[in-house]
Amino acid sequence: MKIFYRLLIFFLVILAGKSWAQVYGCTDPQANNYNPSATVNNGSCTYNSTSISPVSSYTLSSTLAETSGLIRWDNLIWTHNDSDDTNLYGLDSLNGNILQTQALTGTQNTDWEEISQDEDYLYIGDFGNNSNGNRTDLKILRISKSSFVSGTPVTDTISFSYADQVNFNPTGGNNTDFDCEAFMVTWDSIFLFTKQWVSRQTKLYALPKTPGTYTAQPRGTLNVQGLITGATSKQDENIVVLSGYSNTLQPFIYLLYDYTGNAFFNGNKRKIQLSQSFHQVEGIATNDGLKYYISNEAFSQFPFNVQQKLQVLNLSSYLSGYINSNNLPSARTLSLGVFLESLYNGTGMNKSQNETGDQYAGTVADEVSVELHHATSPYALAASFTQVPLNTGGSLNVTVPVAFNGNYFIVVKHRNSVETWSAEPVSFSIPVVSYDFRNAASSAYGGNLKQTGNVFAIFSGDVNQDGSVDTADMTPVDNDAGNYALGYLPTDANGDGTVDTSDMTIVDNNAAGYVVAQHP
Length: 520
Fold this sequence. Notes:
- With 520 residues, the protein is mostly beta strands.
- It is built from five helices and 35 strands.
- The protein starts with a helix and ends in an 8-residue tail after the last helix.
- Residues 1-5 and 7-20 have low confidence and may be disordered.
């Protein structure tokens, strides 16, 4: 009995220690309520009111009187006008002069309000909706960077509507909460920050970033007490900066930083006023997270006459401490344990064969694809890694960009195996993420693994990759077996380089067991 109580006390101490190890509170030393003991930022930081002035200011060409979005790319500042004009303009960052003009032939500028980018594409938001709040043709144009550089831009379209907009009656000018002038593109999604003329807030919506027609899903609301007009981000540092102005054209920026995943509103939130009045700030861009470029369109209303400008802000005093102390790894490692039924030999996996011998050198048994899917419906694809070497011992490693720091389902795909999902979303908040499908059926969603001795393997036999093992898989195997097919083929279910009855047996057994892919 004494031993029991000692063990009980020991475990209580351990649990208590774990609860004490994490202290929630404000972790920003610049905040009014900074808690030096806090280890987890709970988004509670508050700040004194402050304002800054640009360190540089350049008057832009009258061609850009209605300049809207901004990005920093290819050593230039790129911008566009917000109606009719279908050109993109590359500006000298040192003086704002136009150095390059590129027409987007075949496009139409209904109301271009923002430009963003990822590694491969430029994105232009044709989603201005302030006239009557009832546009049904909201879209984002996507242009491949390689085609843009070659001088012949290739454009496709991402169309969308708002999930919570049900009334499309005309609202009259500047009287809707379904206007938008700001968005950004992350590794896996597009995020819209709306310009709410009525509520003076911004609502965050998420979209896939591939061409198609979608419903933008709301993700949260932030009371910015103003109108949001631009967005830029430093994804590897978890920083988003929004631009905007009040109903009296008092410009401001809004800093969002030290958040987790895509929960941009759950970290630090700091509003900073800009010193110039009656500047209708429309775009914002950064390259290093400290130096920011902002643009404003021309504004003329007696007695005010403000020209279109490109201006530079230095936010080092606000963000350099955070960036310097931010110990995010340059990348994460996903370490997986996976056995394939078709290759498992009782102790490990055989090497896949072709008509002459091993398909892969060294200890590589075969290649798989690994995907990360969002943790909430519709469980959209977040990232995909193809041609990942799987060792004979059933291990593989994937380098995951640091921006993927939320919770994701892990999905493994193989050329003739059943797509298999992790049982639950997995946290990617640590430098090395480990997950093993080999030790228990419960590690896969729906327990969808085959027990082989004391280990578990991914079901084989889905030759046509339609998510189920059935007669549609048997037919091509039967045909190739009849033709004495050799090689590294999807119909070679057991990977021995020959399509024959041994492959038909695997497919037949799993078809009889009604094996299908299982996922949320």
